[in-house]
Write a structure and sequence with these properties.
This protein is of the alpha/beta class. It has 14 helices and twelve strands. The strands form three sheets. Strands 3-2-1-12-9-8-6-4 form an eight-stranded parallel beta sheet. A two-stranded antiparallel sheet has the order 5-7. Strands 10-11 form a two-stranded antiparallel sheet. Helix 8 packs parallel to helix 9 and helix 11 runs antiparallel to helix 12. It is globular, with a radius of gyration of 22 Å. Bound molecules: L-rhamnitol (RNT) and zinc ion. The site of zinc ion (ZN) has 5 residues, from loops.
Length: 416
């Protein structure tokens, strides 16, 4: 270990914090990397529909992945620059058909065999998402809450198919797959009837979840949203809708950091929700004005999320997923920056003298609480982070960027 780490270790030890123990805990936290940063949420179906669903990716940085093999190669590159062992979060529209294309309601585990194989070879777990967008039957912005029963039926079948894919993934990788449901359904302008679409969504979800699946293989999650592009006035699956749904149906709730009022943050919600549900899925993201999916950076918001996860003792009950997409910068760098930032935030949280802070608060000594929190900000965190990267065999500093630039020249710029 470096001299810088030795010094940092002593500084933290003086506050009662064991840096070695923090690193050992950090190594066990898996972050689920979203496949869709690698190709602008494109997928490989060529359904003929625009992305839609309020999802918009801006920028045209060269070199995006155009095939599953390219996307996997890019993920390999990103994972080699991120400390720890992580997971892959795959969307259904990344199915591989090998010439025998089926529609979304007929997807089967075999269509994801390439991904499962890849995950197995890397020793990583996988999570899964049905895709309720970029499809002719989603072109008017409604899916599971659609007024047309036939369209609802199609999307219910998609959900049922995806849970089976999730269970197959979880079973073959020996790690439960979180299958997360997000639907775009909503109105651009003020609706007359806010109730009926919610009743229809609840019914559709109940139909999808009617078959119990082994939680060792598949865990269902549901994701809320306040508004999207084209659904500014009303989103059927609001926070209140899904919180009620998740609690009453014993599902996992998914909180996406970008899916609330622009000044509202999700950190404070974690301890409330985990009083009533077993588990929580986070879509770690960064909202900027109307966009909910900027690349994650080490912001106060992100630190607060990590602090709540650690302070509450929730690490084993929270599934950390990432959800952002930026096509204006190198896409692999975006993955690396966002994931490394989340891991940094978790490490910062693991390095807090939590017992001391809690004791101060319990004694009503808010002076010590505030003073200590401020002092922590100038401790030699960087040395501990670098030690962690070294321990995991990944570049500790911006050296990772050199690797990405080299890959850009040698691989990305030669595509197409
Ligand atoms: C959309 C949701 C959802 C998607 C992905 C692609 O607002 O956040 O999670 O970003 O499923
Ligand atoms: Zn999300």
């Amino acid at each position: 270990m470096s001299a810088a780490y030795e010094l940092a270790r002593l500084r933290y030890a003086a506050l009662g914090v064991d840096t070695d123990a923090a690193l050992a805990r950090l190594e066990k936290i898996a972050v689920s990397l979203h496949c869709w940063q690698g190709d602008d949420v494109g997928g490989f179906e060529n359904s003929g529909s625009e992305l839609g669903g309020g999802l918009a990716v801006t920028g045209n940085y060269p070199g995006k992945a155009r095939t599953a093999d390219q996307l996997r190669a890019d993920l390999d590159m990103a994972l080699s620059l991120i400390p720890g062992t992580h997971r892959l979060n795959l969307h259904a529209c990344y199915a591989e058909f090998d010439g025998n294309k089926v529609d979304r309601n007929a997807l089967e585990p075999i269509h994801f065999a390439g991904w499962i194989e890849w995950a197995k070879s890397k020793g990583v777990g996988m999570d899964f998402n049905p895709s309720y967008f970029a499809h002719p039957k989603a072109d008017d912005g409604f899916t599971l809450a659609h007024r047309d029963a036939g369209i609802r039926r199609f999307w219910i079948e998609h959900g049922i198919a995806c849970r089976k894919v999730g269970a197959a993934i979880g079973e073959s990788l020996g790690s439960p797959c979180v299958t997360n449901f997000w639907v775009p359904d909503g109105f651009k302008d003020t609706p007359i009837d806010r109730k009926a679409p919610r009743e229809r969504l609840a019914q559709s979800l109940d139909a999808i979840f009617s078959e119990p699946l082994d939680p060792r293989h598949n865990l269902d999650a549901v994701e809320s949203k306040l508004f999207g592009i084209g659904s500014e006035s009303y989103v059927v699956g609001s926070h209140e809708f899904y919180m009620g749904y998740a609690i009453s149906r014993k599902k996992m709730l998914c909180l996406d950091a970008g899916h609330f009022h622009p000044t509202e943050t999700i950190a404070d919600k974690i301890s409330s929700i985990l009083l009533w549900t077993d588990r929580l899925l986070l879509h770690v993201s960064r909202g900027v004005r109307w966009d909910s999916d900027h690349v994650v950076v080490l912001s106060d918001d992100l630190e607060a999320i990590a602090q709540e996860a650690v302070r509450g003792g929730f690490i084993d009950r929270i599934h950390f997923g990432l959800d952002f997409f930026d096509a204006s910068i190198n896409r692999i760098a975006a993955w690396v920056i966002g994931t490394r930032s989340l891991i940094k935030a978790l490490l910062l949280a693991l390095l807090e003298p939590i017992d001391t802070l809690r004791a101060a608060e319990l004694q009503g000594d808010y002076t010590t609480r505030l003073a200590l929190l401020e002092e922590l900000k100038t401790l030699p965190f960087g040395a501990v982070w670098e030690a962690y990267c070294e321990k995991c065999g990944v570049p500790a500093t911006n050296a990772w960027l050199d690797e990405v630039k080299r890959y850009e020249c040698e691989v990305l710029l030669k595509r197409r």
